[in-house]
UniProtKB/TrEMBL annotation:
This is Class I SAM-dependent methyltransferase. Pfam families: Methyltransf_25 (PF13649). GO terms for molecular function: methyltransferase activity. PANTHER family: TRANS-ACONITATE 2-METHYLTRANSFERASE, TRANS-ACONITATE 2-METHYLTRANSFERASE-RELATED. InterPro entries: Methyltransf_25, SAM-dependent_MTases_sf. GO terms for biological process: antibiotic biosynthetic process; methylation. Keywords: Methyltransferase, Transferase. Residues 55-146 form the Methyltransferase domain. It comes from the Bacteria.
Length: 231
């Protein structure tokens, strides 16, 4: 029988990278859409004003949600891994304005209150949930003008749609397996536009010029149009 996704992500939590205490600018919190340190755009992508309400789908150890809270916004970090959320609570437990929820992202959004100013995901649940289900559900949960944005690795050329992703478990053990959805930028644009999103962009943020890691980061963004609803 297949392993539950929460158990697979608990495996990941054992070895997941830990955010540094401070970044290169000496800041204790920051927003990073990419897999590279001190790189790429920040929270401004979300277009949040003071007191704005945001949801992080697959928040992991919570650094991005904690940053929004420190900026004076309200953030909900949703993650199905108890171990990941334990890391978030341990690191950011003293930070007001952020709530941690242990739940599948799609289930929580479907049942949630809606009216969000922004819903985002950084290498998170938006990569590991069928976008045909998630994108319209996010749309329904956003206020008019609200932003949906997510990032992850760009697809490997020709490897599109539902893919197996392997999480190393340990020497001599089979990896945990989860599924993710990879698409080229133009497919993401069509998919979001088909749900009613406006001003849709899907771009690859180039990697830093220096350093051994050469993969960029795909960043997809769309805005809920005023008065419209996903079909
Ligand atoms: C690669 S980690 C990224 C964590 C975090 N966003 C970051 O940037 O460090 C992926 C996270 O998404 C969570 N996740 C995957 N599928 C999910 C789902 N369907 N619902 C909620 N969380 C999910 C995992 O538990 C894990 O914490």
């Amino acid at each position: 029988m297949a392993e539950a996704p929460s158990a697979a992500w608990d495996v990941y939590a054992r070895t997941a990278p830990t955010r540094r205490a401070v970044n290169s600018r000496g800041e204790k919190t920051w927003f990073n859409w990419t897999q590279h340190a001190d790189h790429g755009p920040g929270a401004e992508v979300l277009g949040l004003g003071a007191g704005g309400k945001a949801v992080d789908l697959g928040c992991g150890s919570g650094g991005n949600a904690a940053h929004l809270a420190r900026l004076g916004m309200r953030a909900v970090g949703v993650d199905l891994s108890a171990r990941q959320l334990a890391r978030a609570r341990e690191r950011w437990g003293e930070t007001g304005g952020v709530e941690w929820v242990e739940r599948d992202a799609l289930d929580w959004l479907t049942a949630g209150p809606g009216g969000w100013d922004a819903v985002y995901s950084v290498f998170g649940a938006a990569w590991f949930t069928d976008p045909e289900l998630l994108a319209p559900t996010v749309y329904a949960g956003l206020r008019d003008g609200g932003v949906f944005a997510f990032s992850h690795r760009p697809p490997v050329e020709g490897c599109y749609g539902r893919q197996a992703a392997f999480i190393p478990r340990g020497e001599g053990e089979d990896p945990a397996v989860v599924t993710r959805w990879d698409h080229p930028p133009e497919t993401w644009c069509e998919l979001l536009q088909g749900c009613g999103y406006k001003d849709v962009t899907a771009t690859v943020i180039p990697p830093p010029e220096q350093g051994p890691r050469r993969a960029g980061t795909l960043l997809v963004r769309g805005v809920r149009g005023a008065g419209s609803r996903a079909g």
